[in-house]
Structure formats: C-alpha cells, structure tokens
Amino acid sequence: MQHRAILRRVLAALMLLALAGSAFAAGTAKYVFFFVGDGLAMPQIMATEAFANALSSRDVSVKRLAFSQLPVTGLCTTYDAGSLITDSASAGTAFASGNKTLNGVINMDPGKTKTYKTIAEYAKEQGRKIGVISSVSIDHATPASMYAKSPSRGNYYEIAVQLTTSNFDYFGGGGFVQPTGKNKDKTSVYELAAARGYTIANTKAAIDNLKSGAGKVIAISPVLQDSSAMKYDIDREPGELGLADFVRKGVELLQNSPEGFFIFVEGGKIDWACHANDAASAIRDTLAFDEAVRVALSFAEKHPQETLVLVTGDHETGGMAIGFAGTHYETFFDKIAPQTMSYVAFNEKVINPYKASTPKDKAKLEDLAPAIRQAFGIDVNSLSQLQREQIERAFKRTMGNEVERSIKEEEYLLYGGYEPLTVKLTQILNQMAGIGWTSYSHTGVPVPVFAKGVGQEMFAGYYDNTDLFRKLVAIMNLRIQ
Fold first, then answer.
1. Residue pLDDT, tens place only, 221-237
2. Do 7 and 62 have their domain in common?
3. 442 in a domain, yes or no?
C-alpha cells in the first residue's frame, strides 16, 4: 500500500510537470475567473437554452448561452472518495486542492486528520488578489472550499471564522448562516472581520461606493432570502443586486493588482432550485449565472493575452431530464414562462400566511387557486383528473390533514421534504413542459467544462475534477508544496 501511495504521488508530480510545460508554451494567466454553477450539468444548460429560445420562437432550437459558446469544451468526472455521487464539499475540495475526500468534508482527507491547501491560498501567497463570490451564503460548502478546512460543512461558524483569517481581498454575495454561532453565543463574525481589517458593505449604496484601493472587503447583498442567500433571480426586484453585479464589483476592486487576480464565482441557487425540482427558478438562476460570466468575458476582451475564463459545475442536481413520459417526444418550454416566483417565495407569500390564518378543517384548495394561477400559470380547474388528485393530496398534506400511510420514505419520494403543495405544483408544471426529475438530491453524471483564454486548450478532453486544480496551477504558474 505504501508503494502504491508513493507511485501515485510520483505520477501526479509528472502530470503536473507535463501540464506546466504546456502552460508555459501558452503563457501564464495573470487574471483567472473560475465559475462554478452548483448543480449545473448539461440538462440544466440545455433546459435554459431551450427556454431562452421558446421565449421568442416556436422553432425547435436553442438560444446558446455565452459560456456554452466558449471555444474549448471538456468533460470531468465528479465522484469522490466514498461515492459516485458527490456533494458540494467533496467536489469543492477536488477542484480547490486536487484531492478526493468524503461527502461533507472540506479540504481534509477522508480520515479528517490532514488538511489541504487550496488553489486560492497558493495564489494569495504568491501575490495575487483573491475574490470569492457566491449567490448563496459565503460560508456555504462551495465558496468555503477556497478558504476553509473542516471535517463538516455544517460547521458554519468555524468556517466563517476561517474566512476572516484568510486575508483574501474580496468576498461578495450572500451572508453568513450562523454569524454568532449555532447557539448565538459567539463573537460576531462581522466583529472579527472588522478587527482583521475588512470593510463590511451591506447596503446597495455602500457596495456601489466601494472603489479600487478600498482594502479587504466583504460585500453582502442587502436583500437576502433563504438561509442567508441572495434571492432566486426569478424573485429579484428591479434595482436589486444580482450575481453579475458582485462579479463586476470584484473586477473593479482587484484589477489593479500587479500580480493579477483569481476570482472564484459560484451560482449556488441553481442547485437549490433543482433540489426542489423547480425548473423555472433553476433556469432563471442559470441565466443570471451566464450574465456573471459575461462580465468576465468583457474583461477578457480587454486583456486577451493575460486572462482565462473557466466555467463548470460541481455536480448535477435533481436528475433533470429533457423529456417526460406524458409529453412523449415533445417539449413545451413556453409553459414554464408564466411562473413568476420561486418555490421559496410562494411558500413565504402564499402558503405560510394561509396556514397561519386558516384552520385545517376549513382549508380549501379553491382558496389558493387565484394565487396558484398568478405564481405558476396553472388553472387548477383545467388539470387532468390525475393531476387534480395529486394536487388535492399535496394540499391536504400541506395543511396537515393527511399523512401518506405514515411511511416517511414514501412521503420523501413524493415531496422530498419540501412543502408538499408547492413541490407538486412545480413538478406538474415541469411535466407539462416536458421536463422530468429523478431525485431531490445530486446525481453522479460528469459535468461539462468550458474555457476561453490563456491555456484554454488544456481543458479539452475527459478528465477528473481533481485535474482542474492541477491545470490551474500550471496555467497560473504557481509553486506548490
């Protein structure tokens, strides 16, 4: 076993040297953007492109996203040290440090005794400015993979404390899940960050007024939704900040660094929407993710010989499929266009107030029919008998009137732990459009990789997610221990 471990290290070193040689031939990337769509794989991309086309045309076609048109496309595996189906912590560890670990573990070995240094930490040590941006909380698994080491992704407070000691230059997007600890008895993360030289900007005016030379910054969206995350883009009001705005601000703050920068960006709520089988919300967040990539591409146009833009997903979520048994060989993506709010917003604005004000023995599905039509474009009275029965049963379950045979596993298969009426509405709407789902969790399929700029050719082919780390090390000409 010891000889095998030595052989693996030697082979990894040889591979790194080979990668470095090809990178030197192509030049070193001074500016690197690394975008990760959480839960993003080809089904989410294809659904978004089909939806974008359906908004303006009846032709069977797609409207390509900016990132899917990058000149080099590759494919990478996502399995981790213990499962073919990874979570965001082990996937983040793979591309951040080049190592496999277990689900739930961030930048530590499977035994949870050894820690790994990340690509962002190497880049920071060697003079680059570092930005970490996410549409979910900045202490969530994927952004945390750039700066934290933890045996459990659920250690939110400890992870946030590590953020304040990272010395990274810019954090943007969501807030913190447990800013004063799980029991709210710890020193505030905001106080710790301020004491370590960070400016906290959490209003639109404060964020807009940040200028180059501001020093270390934590810019938090002034409007947060579930779990200290930014709003789903489908719920975002005009004038509210989106993911692209935080990328744009990051570029403004970091671009004058003599050694360049490394900016990591996560579109995190694509994953959350797919967990809930809410295609419209996932698609709208994929479009917002694409807008953020466009900011990087605009910068790259001005620095074409010095910039790399890399886009991938960490895993697929939901088992999304373009096709449903009830629509056979057809799809109708225009049918999800009328959806005006996410499942979270529908729960907050419709379900929760109704449950609070209506005794369960007085509750009627008809009471919510106007809100259902407004939120999802579904006319309850025009549903098929089967669909109506499914909605009625989910409504009773939401109101607490019916338990599915008292079998917890069966209820999970039906509703995935989400509000029963809401998830059933999104599922039926998706089925009308010809979109299917197999899971409320992740799946094990490979994910695409798109690249443009310095060293782009290195991302062609089929490889492992740990190879992203090695390729980036070579392209950025980093020295690693």
1. 999 999 999 999 999 99
2. yes
3. no
